[in-house]
Here is the input.
Amino acid sequence: MYPLLRPLLFALDAEKAHHLTLDGLGLAHKLGLLPLVAGRPVSDPVTVFGLSFPNRVGLAAGLDKNADYIDALGALGFGFVEVGTITPRPQPGNPQPRLFRAVAQRGIVNRMGFNNLGVEHLLQNIRRRTYNGVLGVNIGKNATTPVENALDDYLLCLDAVYADCDYITVNLSSPNTPGLRDLQFGEPLRRLLDGLKTRQQQLHAQHGVYRPLLVKIAPDLAADDIDDIARTFLQLQIDGVIATNTTIDKTALAGMPLANEAGGLSGAPVYEKSTAVLQRLSQQLQGKIPLVGVGGIESGAQACAKLDAGASLVQLYSGLIYRGPSLVRECAAALAAGKHG
Here is the structure.
């Protein structure tokens, strides 16, 4: 069905098509039609950072920023769903247009800027979900919050969602919030994560349940930076790492107008770079911290390659835009057949 719908959706502005697709999924879910699209979910149970996943394929953050469509997206056969990025206060994000397709390269350029309705709105949605799979919440800082005060925003989000999700991801790697990526390095990284780990332990004691804390990193990291980050993650006992976010390198779009658009590039053009970062990070962590591989996955074979590079789980985003919901089952089945892990 999706191959028939895609030309119609691609004829629309990318952001309008995004909202139309999600609204359509929501309606199809209410009508009980999604099993006809998704088929029976692939069963491939695995335990990663203390959580039991029904299969290894998840939805990456960014598609459902406000958790408005958890139940519909969960019905597509994902082993886990990550919502957000969410910030303490609502914010409109960057001016439109801010989402673009590079169709020939099967890529997407976005400079959304953490547009969301705030953590309280998200909290209401996740509390009334019927989806009972693994749920992650991706947290960030408001654009108006100075970078030196970023920890305050992350703590507000962590406090708010801790009891109502299964894991929390700290987004330090979006290129669309000024100064955010600077938090991935050196003392700023250590100070931020130390503060979050301290609060995690306090919330663990308060709620009697441990929620893993993950960090999402950029693909635009030099080898030495990856090694330094890995040491910090090990020292602070971070529970998991998501590799990677979008890239600011638009070499793949050379000669196209989109090459000059601000924002991060996702999809097929980031696959090699994100996989290389994943592999380097895996070598440095030596299996002590589980990794989630995301970036450019368009086939079951590519999902398997992420696990071969060191990931325990994978996430999809742009591939869904180009391939449709069938990609979820294809990847989950390929990983199950490969008997990875």
Summary: Residues 2-338 form a domain with the TIM Barrel fold (CATH 3.20.20.70). Residues 146 and 179 are 9 Å apart (CA to CA).
